[in-house]
Amino acid sequence: MGKVADRAHRQAEALAGFPLLRGCPATAVQRWLARADLLDDAQRVELAEALSDLVEAQETAPMEQEALEAQVAAYPVLRDVMGVGAAPERSARTIPVKLMARLIEEQSGFDGVARLFQLDGPKAEPPRPHLERWEEAVPVKPAALRKAAVAALIGRFGGEAKAEGELTRVTAVVPEGRMVVDLIFAAPGRAVSRQMSHRFFLDRADGTRLRPGSYETMWRLGAEWDLITEGNLERSMAHLVRVTEARLALIADG
After folding, report:
1. What is the pLDDT of residue 87?
2. How large a percentage of the chain has pLDDT more than 90?
3. What HEC string does the chain produce?
4. Tens of pLDDT along 112-165?
5. Under a CB-based contact definition with an 8 Å cutoff, are residues 248 and 5 in contact?
6. Domain of 189?
7. Is residue 213 in some structural domain?
8. Residue 212 dihedral angles phi and psi, to the nearest 5°
9. Dist. CA 131–CA 88, nearest whole Å
């Protein structure tokens, strides 16, 4: 992706309230947005610029942890949104849906979970827009999730899918080159909170390979989706297509 296009995208998304990030059913994104939503328009643009500076600096010369922390510390708004040095947030919206479903069952309802973790007010709210009510905290079954993710990607881009263990690799030829989306699914009964993570890379027509990553990588976030329910499955898979399209568009613009 081109630096100019990436920077412009971050600015536009920041001014719009981060709509593409907001559509990702992930507790890591929920945690990030809880801090970013406290910013005004000017601060959100400042955050986007700081992230662009950080990403470009890392791409020019990969940093050791100490240098990375110093770079982040130079931008207070970036430090605050990334939560550097802050205590972990205790909020219901940051509990993965598989874990929340188990807690609700063990505590005979969400009220019991709220008492257990001393959650009230905004800290007891569900992770909107992915769940509007706690009754919707029914995690999608792994087989249904894998089937829906593959169908959404192949339905949009064509190509083929090959599965091996927890990994399913979707490969398709697109105008920008040969696209590969790796989907890593949690095996049934083997993960308390994991559901699906995704990773994208592209082999260009000129033989160069785009560095593997995800849309969330643009914001220095992981791509672990852990808020996928039976009710939001279709919407979530449509968003997987949307963020993949966004990455391809940025590559084309770059």
Report:
1. 67
2. 70
3. CCHHHHHHHHHHHHHCCCHHHHCCCCHHHHHHHHHHCCCCHHHHHHHHHHHHHHHHHHHHCCCCHHHHHHHHHCCHHHHHHHCCCCCCCCCHHHCCHHHHHHHHHHCCCHHHHHHHHCCCHHHHCCCCCCCCCHHHCCECCHHHHHHHHHHHHHHHHCCEEEEECCEEEEEEEECCEEEEEEEEECCCCCCCCCCEEEEEEEEECCCCECCCECHHHHHCCCCEECCCECCCHHHHHHHHHHHHHHHHHHHHHC
4. 999 999 999 999 999 999 999 999 999 999 999 999 999 999 999 999 999 999
5. no
6. 142-253
7. yes
8. -60, 145
9. 22
Number of domains in the chain: 1
Query: Measured at the alpha carbon of residue 63, what is the angle toward residues 60 and 64, in degrees to the nearest 5?
Result: 165
Round to whole Å and give the CA distance between 161 and 198: 14
Q: What are phi and psi of 190, to 5 degrees?
A: -110, 0
What's the Cα-to-Cα distance from 20 to each of 73, 142, 240, rounded to whole Å? 26, 24, 10
Asked, for residue 244, whether it belongs to a domain, the answer is: yes
Q: List Cα–Cα distances, 153 to 80, 186, 199, 205, in angstroms.
A: 35, 19, 13, 21
Please report whether residue 206 resides in a domain.
Answer: yes
Q: Residue 149 falls within a domain, yes or no? A: yes
Biggest alpha carbon distance in the chain? 58
If you average pLDDT over residues 25-45, what whole number do you get? 94
Measured CA to CA, the distance from residue 143 to residue 156 in angstroms comes to 20
pLDDT (average), residues 29-37: 93
As a dihedral over the C-alpha atoms of residue 185, residue 150, residue 183, residue 179, rounded to 10 degrees, the angle is: 170
The residue whose two tokens read 């909170």 is: 193
